[in-house]
Amino acid sequence: MGDNVQVAVRLRPFNERERVRNAKLVIKMENNTTTITDPDGKYPEKKFTFDFSYWSHDGYNEREDGYLEPDGSKYADQAKVFDDLGKGVLENAWKGFNCSLFAYGQTGSGKSYSMVGYNPNKGIIPITCEELFKGIEEKKLTDDAEKEAEYQVSVSMLEIYNETVKDLLNVSSFKKGGLRVRQHPQKGFYVEQLQVAPVSNYSDIEARIAEGTRNRTLAATNMNATSSRAHTIVAINFAQKAKNEAGKSMTKTSIINLVDLAGSERADSTGATGERLKEGSMINKSLLCLGNCIKALADQQEGKHISVPYRDSILTRLLKNALGGNSKTVMIAALSPADINYDETLSTLRFADRAKSIKTKAVVNESPTD
Ligand code: ADP
Ligand code: MG
């Protein structure tokens, strides 16, 4: 029993650099099947199927304000991705389930575009926040006064960089070598002293996320000068308090974890050396461990009795629930269309393919209000 992790893949357009050097397109999508072709013709085509496949490579017009609008043929825009993935996350949050949505892929493949977006092409995180508050306002209008319903939203934002946790909403956590990850007997791993900021409307949460984004560590690499080499986790805590039929106050809670992972490429392909290489290998430690956990979870589904090495990295400790516990989980694998990225894109597809078989066991989090 349990729910399978839902897996989506999304293909971005060629970037300027790729257009200039006439990059070849190595990905095809037909319904839910994605095919990758080896540009050197050494290996046969490989096919994968996913729950959702988004062709965002072409078929759009850029509006005056910059919004990429489908021309009616095939482009999957931000609204489409939100409708399929974000909406379900919100519905589950309203029911009291924890939800996780994470983006995987090499640097420059489109993870942040899907998760956060670039104005005016807002991604899943801002749209989800907007829709959550819209839903709360609508609910308040229709709620029965006798239930004394109350809704509380708070947000935290952290970064994992070189196996240390930084609170993006509290810069003073940066210098002390990061925050500690501890384990709670029921709730599992959590970050000690992480700031959880109450927010009462969309512009509050938008301002908090903007603050966190400004505080992010930006380390340029050859691949993408603005891309972070860190994992970012935005967590939205949603609590619904209301009296039940017996007049007893109950609280339903949900944590929505939105994770923008660091680039999955190997350190050597970015031309990193020295300090940067060390950084790369530390980042790879977390991602490598994520891969190991996903492999172990997939093997468990095939009946193998092995344990899952969550403890081996900060990232996997914090994603433990998202991967094998109390959570409804969605993964978006971001794909580059270009021949030059064939190896990395194939490894992303394989990673996503393994993630499909993982099952989680979400439960409604509801208990008497304390
Ligand atoms: P990552 O976070 O994986 O490093 P980004 O999300 O920053 O990559 O995307 C790299 C570039 O590709 C950005 O300029 C972004 O605007 C563009 N891009 C990514 N995905 C899409 C998409 N689905 N549609 C249009 N442009 C995209
Ligand atoms: Mg990014």
Structure notes:
The chain has 370 residues and is an alpha+beta fold. The chain has a single domain, classed as Kinesin (3-Layer(aba) Sandwich). The chain is 31% helix and 28% strand. The protein has 10 helices and 21 strands. Strands 2, 6, 9, 12, 13, 16, 17, 18, 19 and 21 form a 10-stranded mixed β-sheet that branches. The protein has a 3-stranded antiparallel β-sheet with strand order 3-4-5, with helices on one face. A two-stranded antiparallel ribbon has the order 1-20. Helix 2 crosses helix 4. The two termini are 32 Å apart. About 3% of the residues have low confidence. Adenosine-5'-diphosphate binds next to helix 3. Magnesium ion (MG) binds next to helix 3.
Determine the N-to-C terminus distance.
32 Å
Strand content of the residues, in percent?
25-35%
**What small molecules does this complex bind?**
adenosine-5'-diphosphate, magnesium ion
CATH top level?
Alpha Beta
Q: Please, how many helices?
A: 10
Q: Can you tell me the residue ranges where pLDDT is under 50 for at least 5 consecutive residues?
A: 218-227
CATH architecture: 3-Layer(aba) Sandwich
What proportion of the residues is helical, as a percent range? 25-40%
How would you summarize what this structure contains?
The chain is of the alpha+beta class. The protein is built from ten helices and 21 strands.
Strands, helices and their partners?
Elements: E1 3-4, E2 6-11, H1 16-20, E3 27-30, E4 33-36, E5 46-49, E6 52-55, E7 60-62, E8 68-70, H2 78-95, E9 99-104, H3 111-115, E10 117-118, E11 121-122, H4 124-142, E12 150-161, E13 164-167, H5 172-175, E14 181-184, E15 188-191, E16 197-199, H6 202-214, E17 231-243, E18 249-260, H7 274-301, H8 314-318, H9 320-324, E19 328-335, H10 342-355, E20 359-360, E21 366-368
Parallel strand pairs: 2-6, 2-19, 9-18, 9-19
Antiparallel strand pairs: 1-20, 3-4, 4-5, 7-8, 10-11, 12-13, 12-16, 12-17, 14-15, 17-18, 18-21
Bound molecules: adenosine-5'-diphosphate and magnesium ion.
